[in-house]
Amino acid sequence: MLVRIYPENPNQKEIDKVVKVLQDGGLVVYPTDTVYAIGCDALNVRAVEKICQMKGVNPQKSNLSIICYDLSNLSEYAKVSNAAFKLMKKHLPGPFTFILPTSSELPKIYKNRKEVGIRVPDNNIIRTLVQSLGNPILTMSIRDEDEVIEYTTDPELIHEKYEHQVDIVIDGGFGGLEASTVIDCTTDNFEIVRQGKGEL
């Protein structure tokens, strides 16, 4: 199903429709401030496993990332030092993923790696979804390194490709091409692991 939602002013009725799908363990494709991504309720282990399987990601070997509405509940999902918190507060919402040690609230599937990526994108649609769901959303970029670029930015082409694999594709306008900048904050020496759209 393709659902049109306007980023400037997301329609609550459409948001509620998507939230219901997420609550039922469904998969959703949505825009962020970088690229289009696929996600599910981050605390629904079965849905997380479904996305990992679909994307060919082994959660034992790969870091998983979640989208939060803001930094207020951060300590529920990650252990964050004062220095890391200051850095995040300065740059979020924005095109960054901060890697932090996981906390006890996240399901076991995240703890195999002992780290989790935290995102707060500068995009009203996905943040409104997270806020309405009341849980973070697991997020993975739909773009693989070797894929044709065009379809990954056009929601109608994304829908064509994914309509049988996901429950909803949100059309929030054309997406970007550049992924987020990833910063490892698991030690005191912060390190940029991947330079993307965000400039620190």
TrEMBL record:
Residues annotated as domain YrdC-like: 12-198
InterPro entries: DHBP_synth_RibB-like_a/b_dom, Sua5-like_dom, SUA5_domain
GO molecular function, one term: double-stranded RNA binding
Cross-referenced PROSITE patterns: YRDC (PS51163)
PANTHER family linked: DHBP SYNTHASE RIBB-LIKE ALPHA/BETA DOMAIN-CONTAINING PROTEIN, THREONYLCARBAMOYL-AMP SYNTHASE
NCBIfam families documented for this protein: L-threonylcarbamoyladenylate synthase (TIGR00057)
Record's protein name: Threonylcarbamoyl-AMP synthase
